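Reviewer 2 asked us to include a model.

Predict the structure of this chain.
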Amino acid sequence: MSQPDQAAAAAQPAAGGCGGGGCGCGGDAPGSADASAPVLSLDPRIDVREVPHGQRHARVLAALDALPGAGGLVLVAPHAPLPLLAEIEQRYAGRFATQWLQEGPDVWQLRLSRTSAA
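Predicted model (structure tokens):
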């Protein structure tokens, strides 16, 4: 490839959501320039959108109970899980921190992690 061809190729934007050559973030899908791309995390991910409504809290609470000492998880929900967060606070009294990763309008993602007080 000649120098001008290399320069032209380098000037072309790379494919992929972040422009980095298909990183897998989902941003290159049609209509996905919003916050619907998956959140990258090493923590286990619990997506309760497909869990029957009456079983969601129990599923998340069981997952929190099973976390290792300094562990955390990413919760994916179809709405802001405020009642669940209140239940977590009542049950665990400050032993979990919440970090909002994505706030709607169709998907909410948050990281729940044990605090140093746990």
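The longest helix spans residues 82-92. Residues 1-33 form one domain. We have added this to the supplementary material.
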